[in-house]
Amino acid sequence: xxxxxxxxxxxxxxxxxxxxxxxxxxxxxxxxxxxxxxxxxxxxxxxxxxxxxxxxxxxxxxxxxxxxxxxxxxxxxxxxxxxxxxxxxxxxxxxxxxxxxxxxxxxxxxxxx
Amino acid sequence: xxxxxxxxxxxxxxxxxxxxxxxxxxxxxxxxxxxxxxxxxxxxxxxxxxxxxxxxxxxxxxxxxxxxxxxxxxxxxxxxxxxxxxxxxxxxxxxxxxxxxxxxxxxxxx
Lengths: 113, 110
What we know:
The structure holds two protein chains of two kinds.
Chain A: E1 4-7, E2 10-13, E3 19-25, E4 31-38, E5 42-51, E6 54-57, E7 64-66, E8 76-78, E9 87-94, E10 103-104, E11 108-112
Parallel strand pairs in A: 2-11
Antiparallel strand pairs in A: 1-3, 3-8, 4-5, 4-9, 5-6, 7-8, 9-10, 9-11
Chain B: E1 4-6, E2 9-13, E3 18-23, E4 30-36, E5 43-49, E6 55-57, E7 60-65, E8 70-75, E9 84-91, E10 99-100, E11 104-109
Parallel strand pairs in B: 2-11
Antiparallel strand pairs in B: 1-3, 3-8, 4-5, 4-9, 6-7, 7-8, 9-10, 9-11
């Protein structure tokens, strides 16, 4: 199916464990983004990527790592999960210059216990 | 720095109008508006580029005052389907990175 998909939908992990959230898009959009959403803070940018092999930090990158070896995939890894990383994570993609905005995935609800 | 949205919440009866404001401390290249239903992903509504352009989407429209670094979203003759949380996303450097406001929760009642 065309679109942007995130997996898993829900994840519970323990403090200190490494966890990877997956994001896959089928449109070949050049830009991809990871945001976290917390009550009272709206959406905050963690990392973004302008193209394969080009990534850069956003507003809240500490504790996270990204990679983008292929245009369609943009995984987000929490190297050593902490309780403060409990959040809903949204991946988004964008085709620049089209006049369209972001298309968001369905989100991953991550709980760190 | 995240833009400031106001009000935080608004309750409407069907058919009433509302305005949501978004204000930034930085010069803006563009403003996006999104709506998010509970438990779902944000959905793109419209984008406004610098130049004071006003856009419309059904009975939802928006304006962008570049000089004041502000944007407003207008909900006209609200419908039950307009309920949700509205976010503005601001872009300062033409780099496609958005900073989002904290959101405005709109509840439309019959």
